[in-house]
Amino acid sequence: VAFVVCRSLEGLKTFSYLEELILDNNLLGNDLLLPKLPHLHTLTLNKNQISFQRNTCKILLDHLAEVVPSLQYLSLLGNIACPNELVCKEKDEDDYQRYRYFVLHKLTNLKFLDTRKVTRREREEALVRGAFMKVVKPK
């Protein structure tokens, strides 16, 4: 397990066998770039600055799918990208479920997202509609 407080993740490339990475409470955003970590199965990015601005979250999720192919547990709690009614009064459970479908559509191997186990029904729904579930607020 690695505990890192930083803005640059360049040094992680020397830990190619890393299995768990906790990057909570940093200033990491959608431009996060991880090196190839083929054994990483757990990644927590709680309380950072990840959002659904434009297509940047899609790009981040595509990047994670490529560089951490073994990822099974991801947590994005406390980020703008993760709609949570406890953090934002305008968000509700439907917003959170759409977010889950979108993330699961991109990261198909996840077994847990945030604090919840991924269900078979969610996985099926993510395959069918996940690409269209990005939570966007009209301006």
TrEMBL record:
<dbReference type="InterPro" id="IPR043313">
    <property type="entry name" value="LRMDA"/>
</dbReference>
<dbReference type="Pfam" id="PF14580">
    <property type="entry name" value="LRR_9"/>
</dbReference>
<dbReference type="GO" id="GO:0030318">
    <property type="term" value="P:melanocyte differentiation"/>
</dbReference>
<protein>
    <submittedName>
        <fullName>LRMDA protein</fullName>
    </submittedName>
</protein>
<dbReference type="InterPro" id="IPR032675">
    <property type="entry name" value="LRR_dom_sf"/>
</dbReference>
